[in-house]
Specification:
The protein is of the alpha/beta class. The protein has two domains: 15-252, 3-Layer(aba) Sandwich (Aspartate Aminotransferase, domain 2), CATH 3.40.640; 254-353, Aspartate Aminotransferase, domain 1. It is built from nine helices and 14 strands. The strands form four sheets. It has a seven-stranded mixed β-sheet with strand order 2-10-9-8-5-3-4. It has a three-stranded antiparallel β-sheet with strand order 11-12-14, covered by helices on one side. It has a two-stranded parallel ribbon with strand order 1-13. Strand 6 (146-147) and strand 7 form a beta hairpin. The model has no long low-confidence stretch (mean pLDDT 97). The structure holds pyridoxal-5'-phosphate (PLP). Pyridoxal-5'-phosphate binds at residues 9, 75-77, 100, 144, 148, 167, 169-170, 188. It comes from Flagellimonas olearia. Residues 5-340 form the Aminotransferase class V domain. Its cofactor is pyridoxal 5'-phosphate.
Length: 354
C-alpha cells in the first residue's frame, strides 16, 4: 500500500533520489565500484563533494558572496557547540523558541556569557517572540528558524548589525530568504536534504578567526574550509544523497518553486484545522510552520477512530512529539501535495462521523 510519510525526521526524500542512491550503492555511475567502497579522495567522490558544496551555495543564492559550504558530522547538535567554540568570545544572545534552542543555549554556556534575549517558554513555545531588544555588544545572535517539535517558524528575522547564526535544520531549502543576512547557517541533513549523518554548515569566511581560544582541528570551521570539507573522511553516502536532493530541487526550479508547493500544502492543512471543530492548532496563527503542523484532537473519544482511519489510508508518522502531544504532520519538500490531501480528507470525514 502507498504510504504517506509525514515523519518529522529522518523523513521522506524524493523517490527518484532514493532510486539513484540505491543504484549508486551497488555501482556508482558505471565505474564498476560502489559509492561506499571507493576512496573519498577518488576523482569521483571529490567531484560529488564539490558539486554538493556548490549546489548548496547556489540554491541559497550565496555564490561569490564570501561563504563556504561544508558537510560535517555530529548532527546539528554538534553545531550547538561548534558555533560557540568558533564565534563566542565574550557574550552571545539566544532566542529561546523550544527544545532545540535550549540545547544550543546549554552548550554555548560552556564558552561564554549567554543572554536569553527572548523566550516563549512560559507559553510552552506556542509562538515566536517578537520586538525584543538585541544588545549591540553581542558576538552573535542565535536563532532557530523552524521549531520542529512545536511547529512554529520565524517569518520575519530581526534587523540587527549583530552577526546572525541560525539553526535551519527543519526548514533549509524550503522557502526564499535573504540568506546573506546570516553569518552562519547550519542544518542536519535528515529533513530537506538527505539521510542522517551529514550536517550542512554555511559560513561567512570573514566571521572566522576572531576568538582568542585555541580550537581543536575537528571543531574548527577554518580547518574544514581550508580542506574543502575533506579534513577527514566525510560521510560519503549522506553527502551523495544530499547532492542528489539539491540537484532534484534545482531541476524543479529551486527554492522559489518548492516554496510555492510548500505554501499550498500548509494552507491546505491549516484551513482544515481552522474550520474543523474536531481539531485545534497548537501554534499561534502568524507563526505556524509550513514544515511541521502541530494540532490536537478536541474530542478524545475520536482519537482511536482517527488513528485507525489514518492507518488504513497509509498515513505514517503523524504522532506529536511527547512534549506537545497530539499530532504533528511534517510536510518537508519531498512530501507530495496529494499526501496532505489524503490526510485532510480523513480529518473532514472524521468531523462527519463525530
Ligand atoms: C531544529 C533542530 N535543531 C537541531 C536538531 C538536532 O539535530 P541532530 O539530531 O542532527 O543533532 C533537530 C532535530 O530534529 C532539529 O529539529
Amino acid at each position: 500500500m502507498k504510504k504517506h510519510n509525514f515523519s518529522a525526521g529522518p523523513c521522506i526524500l524524493p523517490k527518484e533520489v532514493m532510486q539513484k542512491a540505491s543504484e549508486a550503492v551497488v555501482e556508482l555511475d558505471g565505474i564498476g565500484l560502489s559509492l561506499i567502497e571507493i576512496s573519498h579522495r577518488s576523482r569521483e567522490f571529490v567531484a560529488i563533494m564539490e558539486k554538493a558544496r556548490s549546489l548548496a551555495l547556489e540554491l541559497l543564492g550565496l555564490e561569490g558572496k564570501g561563504y563556504q559550504a561544508l558537510f560535517l558530522q555530529g548532527g546539528a547538535s554538534m553545531q550547538f557547540l561548534m558555533a560557540a567554540y568558533n564565534l563566542l568570545d565574550k557574550k552571545a544572545g539566544y532566542v529561546n523558541t523550544g527544545t532545540w534552542s535550549q540545547k544550543a543555549i546549554k552548550e554555548a554556556k560552556l564558552f561564554g556569557d549567554i543572554v536569553e534575549v527572548a523566550s516563549s517558554q512560559a507559553e510552552n513555545f506556542n509562538h515566536i517572540p517578537k520586538g525584543y531588544h538585541i544588545p549591540s555588544d553581542l558576538d552573535y545572535l542565535h536563532l532557530t528558524s523552524n521549531n520542529t517539535i512545536f511547529g512554529t517558524q520565524i517569518k520575519e528575522f530581526p534587523k540587527t548589525d549583530v552577526p546572525l547564526v541560525c539553526d535551519m535544520s527543519s526548514d533549509i531549502f524550503s522557502r526564499q530568504l535573504d540568506f546573506s543576512k546570516f553569518d552562519l547557517i547550519y542544518a542536519g541533513a535528515q529533513k530537506n536534504m538527505g539521510p542522517a549523518g551529514a550536517t550542512l554548515v554555511v559560513v561567512k569566511e570573514d566571521i572566522l578567526g576572531k576568538v582568542s581560544r585555541k580550537i581543536p582541528s575537528m571543531l574548527d570551521y577554518a580547518v574544514h574550509v581550508s580542506k574543502e570539507s575533506m579534513f577527514n573522511t566525510p560521510p560519503v553516502f549522506a553527502v551523495y544523497v544530499s547532492m542528489l536532493t539539491m540537484q532534484w530541487l534545482k531541476d524543479l526550479g529551486g527554492i522559489a518553486a518548492i516554496e510555492e508547493i510548500n505554501e499550498r500544502k500548509a494552507s491546505l492543512i491549516y484551513s482544515e484545522i481552522e474550520l474543523n471543530p474536531v481539531f485545534s492548532g497548537f501554534a499561534a496563527k502568524e507563526d505556524r510552520s509550513t514544515m511541521n503542523a502541530t494540532f490536537n484532537i478536541t474530542d478524545d473519544g475520536l482519537k482511536e477512530l482517527f488513528d485507525t482511519m489514518c492507518k488504513e489510508a497509509g498515513i505514517s508518522g503523524i504522532n506529536g512529539h511527547r512534549s506537545v502531544g497530539g499530532y504533528r504532520a511534517s510536510m518537508y519538500n519531498a512530501l507530495p501535495l496529494e499526501s496532505v490531501g489524503v490526510l485532510v480528507d480523513i480529518m473532514s470525514e472524521l468531523e462527519k462521523k463525530g
